[in-house]
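Lab notebook page, bench 4
Experiment: in silico fold of construct C2
Operator: M.H.
Input chain length: 127 residues
Purpose: comparison with the prior construct
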Amino acid sequence: MPQNMKAFIAAAAISFGLAAPIAHAQSTAPVPSAPPAPQIIEPSDQQLDQYATAAQQLTVVAADYQPKLEAATDDQARQNIMREADGKMVAVVEKSGLSVDQYNGISLAIQQDPTLRQQVEQRIKTK
């Protein structure tokens, strides 16, 4: 799994305190040069709304793929499942109107700013 996808999945899971075995899955494939780390961004209200929508949907996608990943019998099957889940997660984020980099930047901001995290949690509760 590409390093940026691992970071994306980890950010999605960490941003809401989810246990994310998908984020901890290891690939046996060599990783090309690592992409730059996501940059923290100061999200607008619209981006927070988009983030909350995407985060809710990502939780569903992760829950759908977790049993499949646990049932996989070999590394190749796990990699195929993770690749499919990655594609769906990227599509969810992009459908929300954010790029993966924006999503990750907001996730980092939320991890460091409890007030921002509360704002996102409130948005999720009201959806």
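Observations: The first helix runs from residue 3 to 14. Residues 3-16+49-125 form one domain.
Next step: discuss at group meeting.
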